[in-house]
Amino acid sequence: MSTTHATRNRSAGKGRPTRRRTHRGRARQRSGWLLFALPLAVIVGLVIVAGITGTGTSETPETADGFLLPDSAGGMFRLADALKEGDTLLYFSMGVGCDGCFAQIPEITEVLNARGIRLASIMVDPSPAVAHEAARFRITDPILIDADRQVSQAYGMLGVYGHTDRPSHSFALVRQDGTVAAVQHYATMFVPADQLLADLGITTAGS
After folding, report:
1. Is the pTM higher than 0.85?
2. Straight-line distance from the first to the last Cα atom of the chain, in angstroms, rounded to the nearest whole number
3. Nearest one of 83, 105, 82, 109 to 94, comparing CA atoms
4. Where are the beta strands (DSSP E) in 15-114?
5. What fold, for 68-200?
6. Across the strands, what pairs with 71?
7. Parallel, antiparallel, or unpaired: how do β-strands 144-145 and 118-123 relate?
8. How do residues 21-59 score in pLDDT, each as one tens digit?
9. Are 175 and 181 in contact (CB under 8 A)?
10. Domain residue ranges in the chain
11. pLDDT per residue over 131-175, tens digit each?
12. How many helices (H) and strands (E) does the chain have?
């Protein structure tokens, strides 16, 4: 073998391990990125799922949290006084800007009254804006104003379906003895009366 051929062979022999080391290095680098990316993808996925499923920032209490709130007509509403007359359905909604939220009130008021249940609708918007929208939907019962969100927070109605600063479309049925009998959250902004009653377990008059 000539000197020239031997030199070429030695040069070729030196190059091959270098390539293998380069491929291995790239493989290790890709593995490192995967180890970093997979946990990140899991975290992002959990955040998305939490937003879809609508977990509240706090749980609804088993016993109703008593409260006193102003209403859109300039009066005051005390839960304890309402419960003296019977069960009360607290309706927490997005409020102004959501037509379905206002249409929900006349949809369920009559059927609730027929069952001896009082409806207390609660919104976080300023009273004049709420009163204006209520008149547009011919709602005669005053709507409670939870401006500082304390009542909404106490009942676990914030942070549902991604709405962090206001309720979504939620209901809490409070029995006359002060226990919270049922809670329902909806992604839609309007629920037919028969569906709502069934979901809350209200099937017959007085039940």
Report:
1. no
2. 104
3. 105
4. 68-70, 76-78, 88-93
5. Glutaredoxin (3.40.30)
6. 144
7. parallel
8. 444 555 455 444 434 343 334 333 333 333 333 334 447
9. yes
10. 1-53, 68-200
11. 999 999 999 999 999 999 999 999 999 999 988 999 999 999 999
12. 6, 7
